[in-house]
Design brief:
By secondary structure, the chain is of the alpha+beta class. It has 19 helices and 19 strands. The protein has a seven-stranded antiparallel sheet with strand order 1-18-17-13-12-9-8. α19 links the parallel β15 and β16.
């Protein structure tokens, strides 16, 4: 707020026909090209997702998972797609404990114990687009930009330089010493052994060949063909677990989105194994309060949203896992009754003590598309930690995710490791409907920070009427711990006034002031659709390298 007027460093992007927002401008351009050629939202999303998997390799790629919300304007149907991979047939608690391990390593072949689902997700969404949404763009065309940037190169962003350097930083820290993996060193460091600097061109020739194969043969090459054979063979040669049969048996699933009422709007998210119900639970709790009566950005505002997050996370951590292995009482957890019960626990004078240590980190991309036909996509794609497992099967260029390291080796924990099981997933793309039509398409990276940032976006846009870009740029907070910390704290951006920080501390919050636009807060994006004029309002996060583009 400046002189009583909402403002932002960037303007909100506005367009009458179509809009795309991603956390990397080259990906936004790839998707916009498809839209301008007459493609629909799904086709544009695939082009953008493939491209960002190349040009933002530390955040995502074809070695990870993705989740979709797809709105079909012709049928007026909202569909969810879960394209996360399952653990291998040989993955078990006993296996890891026999290696003398108390937890699954985050890096290396043992951390890459779930099948990557991203490519299967692209193709399943593409087939739906072709069959049900009048999709007209050829599959090969959708991967052209990704192949071009992999083969010919692209300029390294400050984000990639920063996260590469961190992971080349400490030879005594196996989490931060990725140059020990020969393929990683070959691709992401120069002959000097240092990372590429911002603006320098980096090429990924092996990945280009892999993508060219997928563009010609489809996902069959990845899950039943030579790529599946190469990945599984290379993993097993290095002590990994995934087999060729694990890839052959992978399948993505259409799922029914979850929803709750929020101020007369309908908020949608994905069901478990995602934490989508936690994001909705926060809104369900906040729906019991008169937020406009509380000043936005005040200590009461921050306190209320932090406490709602804690309460939603307690429910989440009790139940969230693969629902095929454990029942989850979603109807009860998202009921109005539960929202009222949890809201009654919030005391403005003191914080709730959440015992579990949270790790809000998670290197992910979210992208949103609304096309000229009224279709909409909210898509999130991830390899989990920056550069995932760090392990790249020889000559493939594919960074394998380490999402399976989120499993626990405690057999009594709801998210314990078991063969052919999907782990608890932090990824959750979101939409809000107004009068049965998409009104907000939104999401963010950030692991356990995703529900918190989603709540910030929704309250600022719906309760406080912030313009889209202003809502994205407004100072954010994050409850949880940072890497290596022993306890949770409230990280809050430095633009928040000292008296507000002091008020939170007086109430009992452990507050940590961080940089003013730190990417610890995630890279958020939003598209808003005016229900009358159909004008699209888009925003991208200055904490990332993205752009909202429209025409």
């Amino acid at each position: 707020m400046k002189n009583g007027v909402n403002w932002s460093f960037r303007p909100t992007t506005m367009a009458p026909n179509a809009m795309i927002t991603t956390p990397h401008y080259l990906a936004s351009q790839a998707g916009m090209k498809i839209l301008q050629e007459g493609g629909n939202a799904v086709e544009a999303a695939i082009a953008a997702a493939a491209t960002i998997g190349v040009v933002y390799p530390h955040m995502n790629g074809i070695g990870g998972d993705n989740f979709w919300l797809i709105y079909n304007a012709e049928t007026q149907e909202l569909k969810g797609l879960n394209s996360s991979g399952r653990s291998g047939e040989n993955a078990s608690i006993d296996f890891y404990k026999q290696q003398g391990l108390e937890k699954i390593p985050a890096r290396g072949p043992l951390g890459a114990n779930t099948v990557p689902g991203a490519v299967a997700g692209w193709e399943k969404a593409y087939r739906y687009s072709t069959e049900r949404m009048k999709g007209s763009i050829h599959w090969e065309e959708l991967l052209k930009s990704a192949i071009h940037y992999a083969k010919e190169g692209f300029p390294v962003t400050p984000s990639q330089e920063y996260w590469t350097n961190i992971n080349l930083d400490d030879t005594n820290n196996q989490f931060r010493h990725l140059q020990r993996f020969s393929e990683f060193k070959k691709i992401f460091t120069k002959t000097s052994g240092f990372s590429y600097r911002t603006g320098e061109i980096i090429k990924q020739k092996d990945l280009a060949l892999t993508l060219e194969g997928i563009s010609k043969e489809g996902s069959g090459l990845f899950y039943r063909g030579d790529i599946a054979k190469s990945i599984s063979k290379n993993l097993q040669a290095n002590g990994g677990l995934l087999t060729y049969d694990d890839f052959v048996s992978h399948h993505s699933n259409w799922v029914e989105p979850l929803s709750v009422d929020y101020r007369g709007y309908r908020a949608y998210n994905l069901p478990p194994n995602t934490q989508g119900f936690a994001s909705l639970s926060i809104l369900n709790i906040l729906n019991q309060f008169d937020l406009p009566a509380i000043e936005e950005g005040s200590a009461d505002y921050f306190h209320l949203l932090i406490e709602a997050t804690k309460l939603a996370f307690e429910d989440r951590d009790k139940y969230l896992t693969d629902p095929e292995f454990s029942p989850i009482p979603l109807e009860e957890l998202l009921s109005v009754k539960r929202g009222i019960e949890l809201s009654a626990k919030i005391d403005y004078t003191k914080p709730i003590n959440l015992q579990k240590q949270l790790d809000p980190k998670g290197d992910t991309v979210w992208l949103g598309v609304v096309d000229q036909y009224g279709n909409a996509v909210s898509l999130i794609q991830s390899i989990y930690h920056e550069y995932g497992s760090g392990f790249i099967p020889k000559d493939t260029g594919i960074i394998l995710q380490n999402r399976g390291s989120f499993f626990t080796l405690d057999a009594n924990d709801v998210n314990c490791l078991y063969p052919k099981k999907r782990t608890y997933h932090t990824l959750n793309p979101a939409m809000i409907f107004k009068e049965n039509q998409p009104y907000l398409v939104y999401g963010t990276m950030g692991g356990e920070g995703q529900p918190q940032t989603q709540a910030a976006l929704v309250t600022r846009i719906l309760d406080y009427q912030f313009p889209i870009q202003t809502a994205i740029e407004a100072p954010r907070w994050l409850y949880g711990r940072t890497w290596g910390a022993e306890s949770n704290s409230v990280k809050i951006e430095g633009r928040v006034a000292n008296d507000i920080i002091e008020s939170l501390q007086t109430r009992g919050h452990q507050v940590e002031v961080v940089d003013t636009f730190t990417d610890v807060m995630g890279h958020a994006g939003v598209i808003q659709i005016d229900p009358n004029s159909k004008v699209k309002f888009g925003g991208a996060d200055p904490r990332g390298d993205g752009a909202a583009l429209g025409f």
